[in-house]
Amino acid sequence: MRVLLGCVNSAVSLVGYDLEQRQPFWYCPGNLLRVCGICWHEQALWSASDTVLQRVDAAGISRTGLPGPHDNYAHSVKSLGDGLLGVADTGNSRVLLMGGGMKALSLSPLEGWGNDLPFDAIHLNDFVLWQDGLLISAFNHQPFSFWKKSDLNWKAEGWGCLYYLRRHGGRSLTRIVASGLDCPHSLALWQGDVYCCSSACGTFFHYRQDEHGLLQELNRWKVTDTHFLRGCLRLEGGWLLGGSSQRHMEDGGGMTLFWLDDAGSVTPLPVGGPGEIYDIIPWDDALMPGICRTLQHAPELDVEGTFPARCSLPAEYGG
């Protein structure tokens, strides 16, 4: 099986990885496309980055700007069905739900804070459809920028939360349903349960909703001590998780995937040099050849850094 990795703050932004061969077979340099979260939606690859949503298909690349007031610092993007696309607007502490006309409905756990909401207040970064609303991950319920600049060990003292968020009477209603996480990312649902990466401590959590509507921990797996754990994909027999090397001072050996099987065994799968995996989605054999050709001819972006040469898709992968 092959997967597509979305990489942020890295020399490469997309990586095609063959799980059977345990090696990459294609990449997109970061100066052709900047991404954070990625998803498949309406026969195209969508990515969120900075202040834009980007759609890539065989016809080209189109970009849609996101509304303020703050820079969006966009993270996860998800296809929610019925033509609906969601994006984590991290800079404005909300999830934007966007239809075909790209008009946005905003859901924010901090809606009652009013107009004085600071930039990146809680580092809201991911979401999934849950119950009759959304489940959302964030680093802290208090102003994130304040704690980040203090002497508090905010990365490793369990300040992270999961929110249940829904609309009622034209307003966003919010409950904190889980806490005690270290920089949570990468929410996933499987067989009715909730899974989440506690990124800074390299631990993967398994939750189930109780009779009070709260998430109770059923299990946790220590996946890595050397990588920032972020990005997850459920496959037959286990979970594929992403490891970013740049979030730790020690040498973690570069970007790495971790295979966590259902028995709890962890197998590292090296990906490449220093970089940050944010998302993992299935490779699409029908769409990726056209997307790769689009990226092969895309103009370079005006971004700082050193980037590798363009990579052509190998012929055996449909390029």
Written overview of the protein:
The protein has 319 residues and is mainly beta. The protein has 2 helices and 24 strands. The protein has helices spanning 144-148, 288-296; strands at residues 2-8, 12-18, 23-29, 38-40, 45-49, 52-57, 60-65, 77-81, 84-89, 94-98, 104-107, 126-130, 133-138, 160-168, 171-181, 184-190, 193-198, 203-209, 215-222, 228-235, 238-244, 256-261, 266-270, 276-282. The strands form 6 sheets. A 4-stranded antiparallel β-sheet has the order 3-2-1-24, covered by helices on one side. Strands 4-5-6-7 form a 4-stranded antiparallel β-sheet, covered by helices on one side. A 4-stranded antiparallel β-sheet has the order 8-9-10-11, with no helix packed on it. The protein is globular.
What is the H-and-E element order? EEEEEEEEEEEEEHEEEEEEEEEEEH
**What is the overall shape?**
globular
Number of helices: 2
Strand order of the largest sheet: 3-2-1-24
Task: Calculate Rg over CA atoms.
Answer: 19 Å
Q: How much of the polypeptide forms β-strand, as a percent range?
A: over 45%
Given as residue ranges, the uncertain stretches (5+ residues, pLDDT < 50) are: none
The structure class reads mainly beta
Biggest pleated-sheet summary: 4 strands, antiparallel
Percent in helix:
under 10%
User: Quick check: average pLDDT?
Assistant: 92
Cα(first) to Cα(last) distance is 17 Å
- How many beta-strand runs? 24
Observed structural traits:
319 residues, mainly beta, four-stranded antiparallel sheet
